[in-house]
Structure formats: C-alpha cells, structure tokens
Amino acid sequence: MSNTLKIKKLTPFIMHVPVTKNIIGDSTHSITHWGMPGVMIETECGLVGYGHTGTHADITTDRLITTIITDVFGPMLIGEDPTEVRHLHRKLSRSSTNIWVGRGGLMQMALSAIDIALWDLKAKHAGQPLWQLFGGSKQAKVAAYNTDCGWLVRETAELVDDCKKMIFEEGFNAIKMKIGKPDPKEDIRRIEAVRNAIGDDAQLMVDANAKWDISTAKQYGPRLADYDITWFEEPMWHDDVSSHKELAKHMTTPIALGELLYQFDSFKEFVLAGAVDYLQPDATRCGGLTAVWEIADMGMAFNLPVTPHHGDMMQAQLHLVMAHPACSLLEYIPWTLDCFVNPVVVKDGVYQTPVEPGAGTTLRPEALERFSVR
Predict the structure, then answer these.
(1) Which residues of 86-119 are buried (b: 16+ CB within 10 A; e: fewer)?
(2) How far apart are CA 180 and CA 157, in angstroms?
(3) Which of the four pLDDT bands, split at 50, 70 and 90, describes residue 2?
C-alpha cells in the first residue's frame, strides 16, 4: 500500500432506522425513526471511511445535509490525503464561502459526518482501532449510561419497569430519564418513582431538553437534590448562557449541556460564565471528532468532565472517550447497533474495548440496503 492516500470519491447515503417500541419522545420531540445522513469516502487504493450525523429522519433536511457533503465539501476533498484530518477540518470549516452561509446547523452536521469518515479512514490505514491512534489505552474503562429506558412518552409504570430492567437485568449502573411534563410536579413524582425503584446506588440523570424557563427551573431545580441526581441536562434554551448561570446559583445539582451547541466558542461562553458542569459535545453536530477533542481539551483545562452526547455516535465517540483524559462516561442508545459491522458492546455497564481497525462506523451492506431512503 502506498504511504500516500488520495480521496477518489464521496458517496452519500441516508438511512432511517426505527427507534425502540416504534416511538420515543421527550419534552420537545416525538419520533418513530432515527435519521442517519452520511458519507462513504473512498480512496484510490480502495480503502473506505464511513461517517454520518444524526437527525429526526426528516427527508427534506437529510437531503440538504447530503447535498452539502457532495456539492459543497466534495470538490474541496477530491485528491486530498484523507489522513491529514485536522488540516482538512480547518480547510472545510474556515472556507470563506462556507463561513458566509453557515457556521452551524446543516453545514456543521455535514462537516461532522465527513470528519468522522476521515478519522475512520486514517485509523484503517494505520491498521489500528481509532482509540489506539488517538493515544489511548486498552486498559481504559468507559462507563455506559442508558437513556433508552427513560422516555417522557412512557407512562410512569412503564417508565419504572424499563428503568428497573436496565439496572437489575441489563447490568447498567447509570440511567437517564426525560422530564418536561406540562406540570413539573408530575416530573418530580416520576423522578421519585424511578429513584425508589432503582435504589440509591445507581446513578440517575434527568434531561428537560430545554423545556423549562428560568422561573420554572429556579422553583423546581433545587428539588432534584432530594433524589441524588447526577446532573440536570438542558434545563433551559440551548443558547441562554445567562439563565444557566443564574440557575447554577439556585441549586446544587450540576448542569449538563452541549448537544445542540455547534461551535467551540459556544461551549467556551458557558464555561467562562460558570453556567455548566458537564460538557456534552456531539460529534455529529459540533464538527466531528476533531471538534469534540478540542472541546474535551477545554473541559480538561477547566477541570470539567466531558460526557459526549450520544447523537448516534457511540461507535466513533467511544474511541475518543477511551483516549481523552477528560472523559470516562458515554451515553448508550441501541437503535442503530445492527447497522454496523462491529457494533459497540456493553457488559456490566462498561463498554468493551474495540479491536478492529477504524472508528467502528463501517456499515453492513444489508443494513444500508434495508434502511436506505432514496
């Protein structure tokens, strides 16, 4: 194999994969399928890297993402060396034309899919799992917390049963549940029911998906301390730094956020304001693994833990979490596991160490055929 690779071709794809029990929902969204717009990047020597982003399976916006991948970024990548990932990330993200039309949203999600595919290619070319290329250790232990048991659309009895199953049957030591009912008192009752069901030893996180305003958060946020909540995730609107700073003064439960922040500087604003305790970048939204690593560096600089948002990228983000000293915990949602040649495995609440070269993002041809939307 030549030491120098060149990108030959970009092939986009869109997959829509059914979610658990055919519907999930939180305070803001209710969906039946998870969208996976992405790209296969092929080199002249035949190596292929896979990367995708995560959406609510809206075909119109999914097509916009794949159009950006092929028509905007594609011409900038053909003929380039895919192993120069950080160079290419800056080339794409700092293009004057691209900056002019969008530094977040669809443009950043398209960049994220490409960046993940490039890291997959680089690790495959090196013949190493990506965590090893990142300088990680096979001794690293990454705990998994399960969110798939805690959806807001489940009635309380079903919610409690699902959470108990994850702790007592599936072996997880940490779970997350959604809150944001019209009456916050109902949220508190559901939290109490889950805590009583899973016991005091298990970790429990709650996530409002930006539903509450500052008044509601100040009134009910302090009550979370009664149930030993590890963090309160996205209590208010995603970009509202000042309200999160104010809320932090009124409760002892740590604040977690970041899944809908698209830029390094957005994370920096929250950190400098003292408005966040757990940073949750999402490799499918904030610019790929390159960007998540930079955000994790910032977390380490301020002694803040970094727990990447699932974003349907357990596969690739696991490698980064294994390697970066600011990280030790990763969200687990199993919807798309059957799509991958080497899906992640959790045993006794801990992710097992990937051994195959790459980022774990290689898709099974039969899954690509089954779930593709054309």
Answers:
(1) eebbeebbeeeebeeeeeeebbbbbbbbbbbbbb
(2) 17
(3) very low
Closest CA relative to residue 284, chosen from 237, 333, 235:
333
Report how far residue 52's alpha carbon sits from residue 112's, in angstroms, rounded to the nearest whole number: 7
Strands 7-18 and 33-43: antiparallel
Residue 349 CA, chain-centre distance (Å), reads 18
φ/ψ bin of 360: left (φ > 0), alpha (ψ from -120 to 50), beta (otherwise): left
Q: What is the pLDDT of residue 103?
A: 87
Write down the mean pLDDT value for the chain.
Answer: 97
For the question of residue 309 being annotated catalytic, the response is yes
312-340: per-residue pLDDT in tens?
Answer: 889 999 999 999 999 999 999 999 999 99
User: How far is 26 from 9, CA to CA, in rounded Å?
Assistant: 38
Q: Which of 52, 124, 178, 211 is catalytic?
A: 178
Considering only residues 103 and 188, tell me which one the structure prediction assigns the higher pLDDT: 188
State which H helix or E strand residue 266 sits in.
helix 264-273
Q: 35 phi and psi, to 5 degrees?
A: -90, 140
| Six token digits for residue 70 | 């092929």
250 is catalytic: no
pLDDT of residue 3: 58
Closest by alpha carbon to 113, among 53, 162, 172, 24?
A: 53
Residues β-bridged to residue 372: 15
Task: Write down the catalytic residue from 309, 310, 319, 324.
Answer: 309
Residues 98, 104, 109: CA angle, nearest 5 degrees: 90
Q: Contacts by 342-346 with C-beta closer than 8 Å and gap 24+? A: 343/315, 344/314, 344/315, 344/318, 346/144, 346/171, 346/172
Distance of CA 311 to the CA centre of its chain: 3
Render pLDDT for 236-287 as a digit per residue (tens, 0 to 9).
999 999 999 999 999 999 999 999 999 999 999 999 999 999 999 999 999 9
DSSP three-state, residue 218: helix
